[in-house]
Each structure stands twice: as structure tokens, then as C-alpha cells.
Amino acid sequence: MTSNPYFVPGPHRAEKVKSLFDAVAGRYDLLNDLLSLGLHRHWKKRLARMANVGPSCRVLDLCCGTGDVTFALSMEGAAVVGLDFSPRMLEAARTRTRRQEQQRRGASQGTVAYVQGDALRLPFCDQTFDAVTISYGLRNLASVENGLREMVRVAKPGGRILVLDFGKPDSGLLRRCYGFFLRRVVPILGKLSTGGTEAYAYIATSLDHYPAQHGVAETMKRLKLENISVVNLLFGTMSIHFARKPLASPDSGAGRTPAQKAT
Ligand SMILES: C[S@@+](CC[C@H](N)C(=O)[O-])C[C@H]1O[C@@H](n2cnc3c(N)ncnc32)[C@H](O)[C@@H]1O
């Protein structure tokens, strides 16, 4: 496993991650296009379609970054809230969404609102959303399990939980080639476009510590989610997890935030 100044396990993890995304916000979209040859756009649209939302749906897109998935979900007609803790990423999201809305005036679409907040302590009541999505965000949280727990808490009974992120291919050879790409090639491309290697070397380090396809599915099972499925993309180098919150949810205290519940 590699070390990286932006990956600090424990209480300071979030602070470092936030500083990383504030630093790369201006070039984030360009680098995504470059590193995935534009494929990330298809994967995000696929995630939005799998969420199966429509005009009467309320959707939460966590770790929304510059708003790709938030906007794609709104194009399905839903009322979408994008949440992120990086002010610079949110600024980029608001600017892009305004531009996209102007370009698509007249096309059927829902609404978009952006909120600054922490994915591990969501400022929403229990059972608020028909679907909760997170794209390339779960891997960055201090606790994958607590992140999923918060997603489940704010989802309505029967609500959809969707996670898109980097994956770990089952094939050992492919995993080694992919590891080489993430550890050697990505940081160089990051340096050429942002001036620093460490911000993009962070992807490989964070993936080393991420449970990926099998571990995320296991955690979903532990949280008693239903209809769990994993879609591997590009030979498992990426994946989408889908799950449903049970209709009869074991959790209680609907309508209260965790802070309210503690009182
Ligand atoms: C790799 S970007 C993904 C952005 C976007 N969802 C996408 O797919 O392009 C990860 C985002 O997660 C945000 N993030 C990381 N940890 C967070 C947390 N605890 N709470 C809220 N946002 C967080 C970062 O600020 C960053 O914008």
C-alpha cells in the first residue's frame, strides 16, 4: 500500500480530502475527461438511469462535486439536491448547472439545489428521499459503513441507494495493470494539468483502502438492504452498486435528524 499526504486515516481524513478537492476544483472536469477518455460521463448517466427517478421523486446526490450526476438526475425530471463539503467544487457545480439549464431551456427536467454539508452527518430528516446516490465519493469518506448508514437513514422505505466508484478487477493481471496506470500514469497526467502529482496519486492510495465491489456489497447486506446488485464497468475497474431500503425499515424516529434524536 502507498502513502499520500492527502490520505490521513482518522479524525483528520475529511480535512485533508476537502483541501484536496478545493485545490483541484478548477481542473477536475478536464482531468476526468482525460483520465477516462470521456467514459465517466456514460457511467454517470447509467447511474442516473438505474436510479429510476421521475418528476415526482426527491433525490439526494452525495459528494456531488461539480454536479455531473446531480444534473443527470434532474434531466430524468427529479427534484435533486447535490451535497458536497468543498466550497470550490460547489461553486463549479452551480456555474455549470446554470450554464446547462440555459442550454437546455425547454427540455423536460426537474430542479437542482446545492447544499454544503458533510456526507457523514447529513442535514436532512430520516426518510426524505426516493433515491440517494454517491459517485466517486464513498471511497473518500472516513467510514464507508457510516456513509452508507447515513444514505439509508435519509432514504424513504423502498428507496434506492446507488454507489458509483473505482473498483478492483477480479483478474490479478488486470489488477496489476490497472494499479500501474493509477500509480504511475495518472499522477503524471495530474502533474501536467494541475502542477502536482500527489493530488492524483491519492486515487490509488484511497482505492487501496476501499473495500470496492465485494466489501461494499457485504456492508450493504449487513445494513439489511435488499435487491443488492453490482454492475462491473470496464472489466471491473469501476462499478455501480444498487440496493433498496426495505419497506418495513428497522430504523425508527422518522422525521428527526441524528442531532434531534440525541436530545
Ligand atoms: C471524486 S469527487 C466526485 C465528484 C462527483 N460526484 C463526480 O462523480 O464527479 C469527490 C467529492 O466528494 C466530496 N467529499 C468528500 N468527502 C466528503 C464528505 N465527507 N462530505 C461531503 N463531501 C465530501 C469532495 O469534496 C469531492 O467534491
Describe the structure.
The termini are far apart. The protein has one domain: 3-Layer(aba) Sandwich (Rossmann fold), CATH 3.40.50. It is globular and about 45 Å long. It contains 10 helices and 7 strands. It has helices at residues 13-24, 28-36, 39-50, 68-75, 87-103, 144-154, 172-194, 198-208, 212-222, 258-261, and strands at residues 58-62, 79-84, 111-116, 129-135, 155-166, 226-233, 238-244. It is α/β, with parallel strands linked by helices and 263 residues long. The site of S-adenosylmethionine has 21 residues, from α1 and α4.
Spell out the blueprint of helices and strands.
Blueprint: H1 13-24, H2 28-36, H3 39-50, E1 58-62, H4 68-75, E2 79-84, H5 87-103, E3 111-116, E4 129-135, H6 144-154, E5 155-166, H7 172-194, H8 198-208, H9 212-222, E6 226-233, E7 238-244, H10 258-261
Parallel strand pairs: 1-2, 1-4, 2-3, 4-5
Antiparallel strand pairs: 5-7, 6-7
Bound molecules: S-adenosylmethionine.
Q: Give the distance, in angstroms, between the N- and C-terminal Cα atoms.
A: 42 Å
- Record the strand order, biggest sheet: 3-2-1-4-5-7-6
- Principal-axes geometry comes out as globular
Give a short account of the largest sheet.
7 strands, mixed
Q: How large, in whole angstroms, is the Cα Rg?
A: 18 Å
Task: Predict the CATH topology.
Answer: Rossmann fold
Percent strand: 15-25%
Cofactors and ligands:
S-adenosylmethionine
**Runs with pLDDT <50, length 5+?**
252-263
Features:
263 residues; alpha/beta; Rossmann fold; binds S-adenosylmethionine
Quick overview:
The protein is of the alpha/beta class and 263 residues long. 45% of the residues lie in helices and 19% in strands.
